[in-house]
Amino acid sequence: MGKFKMALKDFQQVAHKYSLAIDLYTQAIELNSENAVYWANRAFAHTKLEEYGCAILDATKAVEIDPKYSKASLSVSKFGYYRRGAAYLAMGKFKMALKDFQQVKKICPNDLDAAKKLKECEKAVMKLNFEEAIAVPESERRSIVDSIDYRAIDVEPQYASARIENDVVTLDFVKKMMDDFKNQKCLHKRYAYQIVLQTREMLQSLPSLVDLNVPTGKHFTVCGDVHDQFYDLLNIFELNGLPSEDNPYLFNGDTVDRGSFSLEVILTLFSFKCMSPSAIYIARGNHESRSMNKIYGFEGEVKSKLSDKFVELFAEVFCCLPLAHVINEKIFVVHGGLFSVDGVKLSGIRKIDRFCEPPEEDLVVRSHEVKDEGYEIEHDGKLNTVFSAPNYRDQMGNKGAFIVTFTVMEPSRPGFELSAPIGQLLVLQKLDFSSNSLTGTIPDSFQLLKSLIFLALSNNKLHGRFPRGLTGLQNLQYFIMDDNPMFIPLPLEFGHLRKLQELRLANSGYSGTIPPIYSQLTNLSALSLQNNRLTGKIPTAFGNLSHIYHLNLSRNFLGGVVPFNSSFLKRLGRNLDLSSNPGLCLSPSEAFGVNVGIDVCGSNKTASSIRPLKNSESPFQCPKPIILTSFWVFLALHHILFSV
């Protein structure tokens, strides 16, 4: 219980580590489910992560356990009714929040913070009641669009920012507009009206569920929440390229609110949509709504930078946004996730007037929740969360991420080749294509992946040469490519990748000698070359690899005296396997007290009881092959500060 008491006693010690706090309180609740403090503090953490539904459930449980316990000492923070009221307030459910804060006021009449929240709720409910009283019936409402004629708005001669020529939104205009936004210049109202109205017209023609097709060999990028983080949006474009027909994006909701640059974000996305409708797709999130925009800043920002009329216009346009997308009939992309009730069918989503068969998709992609690494993979890889706003709200310390998918084959094909466009992912750090029935060679475009740290291609059918320019991958630390029919000499180029920590090339038919340059890989911790056709001697300088802890050269045709001293041999112990190399022997002076699986030179005695590992016992055994129809690559982005 010690760590739970610590988390409870000094909650601020885990500030901005709310996921960790939730885990700790969950464990505490499992030990003592009748402690209202645990439930209420977990509700607080859920609220900070904007998981308001979970916060309401936890706060309700706290109220059930101790209905009169609204607030503990300041060091423990706030409980029960207060937590639930705060969650309702954040969701814009003012009437529900009002009831909870009224209860807090009864229990703690001198609580100034609760009194402030109560007054805020009373004001909001009064405004709602007034608006309902004077509201025009739906049948009599006119669209705000009917009152807008942007062509009648004059552009002042002194206006020096981006201009739309001949009513056509071009790439040059969008680039100029983004540069203006970086310098905190505003777009003229005429052009803002044109962009939003043109986007509305396109969105109105779309169904609620949009089907997207990514052709074979092409890629597609999915971004999660970006909110107001305009400079991070620019960072994504810098890393992954601007939206275009050949580089399309899907922004999966929550493009506004939470800061001061939401207008810049949404106008940029809408402008790319106007420039090329197939370059960018936008889904509706919970923040593309009037109620959220009132609370979280977008409404006030639009009024300040443009006008009240734009508030109404954006509210209309947000109602036209699609609710979800399906990529290649396999990947269901929706902002919040799947539904709280069973039996919702995709056909039902298509019929929604807005604007799972339970879903049979192979993958569900959602956003909405902050993730420390910018993404999270759950349910055996079938549920992926992506969040694209790094250091969310300038306080969460999280990374942002986006997803890139490559369509590489038709499902009926028994195997497929790696796609050359993979080389376009210039910021890719981790790539794992193990056990995918890959054929052919590694494309030369891999040499462009300068940021690559981890590459795994094991258990495929790759063969032949390695890509030209392999030595350019100077950030590569892990190269895992066991079990491929390569049948070539070991590449010298690996010896130039000085950051390599693990190199695994077992069971692949490599021939010739072990290049002496491999002994210059001073960071190497694991080298697996077993079950190949290697000949010659073990490079003498291998004994100087001070960081190596696993070395397997078994089942080859190596010969000569093992160049390792007794200190090296003892350090590796059973992590050294030299067995089944008929011409290899151990110096008598180094053989005492060590077991390495080979004979002592000049003797028929074996200095080891180690036997070669069978395939079923191999520590690097690969999973059974599977066939994918798309490759999904997560790109994690550290928060980058921009000067403006």
Describe the structure.
The protein has 644 residues and is of the alpha/beta class. The chain folds into three domains: 2-134, Serine Threonine Protein Phosphatase 5, Tetratricopeptide repeat; 151-401, Metallo-dependent phosphatases (Purple Acid Phosphatase, chain A, domain 2, 4-Layer Sandwich), CATH 3.60.21; 423-617, Leucine-rich repeat, LRR (right-handed beta-alpha superhelix) (Alpha-Beta Horseshoe), CATH 3.80.10. It has 16 helices and 25 strands. A seven-stranded parallel beta sheet has the order 12-14-15-16-18-20-22, with no helix packed on it. It has a six-stranded mixed beta sheet with strand order 1-5-6-7-9-8. It has a five-stranded mixed beta sheet with strand order 4-3-2-10-25, with helices on one face. A hairpin with a 4-residue loop joins strand 8 and strand 9. The longest helix has 23 residues, at 112-134. The protein starts with a helix and ends in a 7-residue tail after the last strand. Mean pLDDT is 82; it is low at 3-15, 70-77, 354-359, 408-415, 606-632 and 636-644. InterPro entries: Calcineurin-like_PHP, Leu-rich_rpt, LRR_dom_sf, Metallo-depent_PP-like, PPP_dom, PPP_phosphatase, Ser/Thr-sp_prot-phosphatase, TPR-like_helical_dom_sf. One of its GO terms (biological process) is DNA repair. Its cofactor is Mn(2+). TPR repeats lie at residues 78-111. This is protein-serine/threonine phosphatase.
